[in-house]
């Protein structure tokens, strides 16, 4: 990679390669932090999209807690937690790239409706099985796999839809606000799920998840479908896919950002899957402790995304991205060795700030340096790296069975620190990405 010393001179990587629509080029008035923090919400369709995503993220976060507690209660096995979490990863790895091609060929609003309907149907079936007390581990694994097919199409479509709604002018703000919606739910939804499991049980929580998907689908229907996307009939899906892969191969910035995103997804993010183990076995804090741990991550992540949303644009995003990655890794190690629940929550909060800022900046930089016509395909590759996370959760589950959850999480954080430091020292041009 000796030719990476001047990657930003590639004209394809400039932010103005594909100009946004004329009505999205006008910079927002500088009327203070409050306006800057929520500027993209002035776009009515993005505002609807954003509120719909709150219900989507609520369903995902409540599902993570309810499913994890159910699996660990049924099996008392960290390996089973990893198996269920890994279920959605295989479809993501196998079909995310095709999902990106489809996202570039069809109306993204309509594709989102289809994928959300798929998630609703899976949740409805699982809620029914839990209600009639016929649920089994294989049902949860199968549900995870089926959800993975919906996510393989839905996640790259959602990312590309943000670009379509706001253009590049408000992209960082929109991505940060999207992350903020997710992180609000990471604070409220896990704690709520942990409390509700005590009062209405896991079946009741699953019915709330089903309701959240219904509300999300309704809000998406309020967004106009947009113009029909013109595609060349003589270009096959395979050719479209190859075009996206060629762009990644020839773009050192995109390639490096994707690799930087992949490492923490594989070795660090699986710590979330082990939260039931920390809550029940390490800290002996039960369902409420699980909600507190997950909410600690959410509070930190919300702080990080809100901070980024207050800045419309700034220099040296690459430097801040690397520093955020280091913060994430350091506090992940400290969390794994914490001696009390409340200290663990504090470390998760600080690590959540680093994690949120790292992934928000990575996501934004990838989209800013991608031609708009390739956004769906490039983001599908980015989402495919998230699809590989279940491989990490499966590995983390196996390691936790053998060496314990604290040592497993500490090892993942240490690997992340080592990789980010290596890039910081040996690839200094990354620090200069704007």
Note down, in words, how this protein is organized.
The protein is mainly alpha-helical and 434 residues long. The protein has a single domain, classed as MFS general substrate transporter like domains (Growth Hormone, Chain: A, Up-down Bundle). Helix content is 75%, strand content 0%. It is built from 17 helices and no strands. The chain has helices at 33-37, 44-75, 78-86, 89-105, 108-131, 137-166, 171-199, 201-221, 237-250, 252-267, 275-282, 286-309, 317-336, 341-368, 375-387, 389-403, 405-426. Helix 5 (108-131) runs antiparallel to helix 6 and helix 13 runs antiparallel to helix 14. The protein is globular and about 50 Å long. Mean pLDDT is 81; it is low at 1-35.
Beta-strand content: under 5%
- Helical/strand content category: mainly alpha
Number of helices: 17
CATH T-level fold name: Growth Hormone, Chain: A
Question: Quick one: CATH class?
Answer: Mainly Alpha
Quick check: average pLDDT? 81
Total domain modules = 1
Helical amount: over 70%
Any low-confidence stretches, pLDDT <50, length ≥5? 1-35
Straight-line N-to-C gap:
20 Å
The CATH superfamily appears as MFS general substrate transporter like domains
Radius of gyration from the CA trace?
A: 21 Å
In one word, what is the shape?
globular
What is the chain-wise order of helices and strands?
HHHHHHHHHHHHHHHHH
| Gross CATH architecture | Up-down Bundle
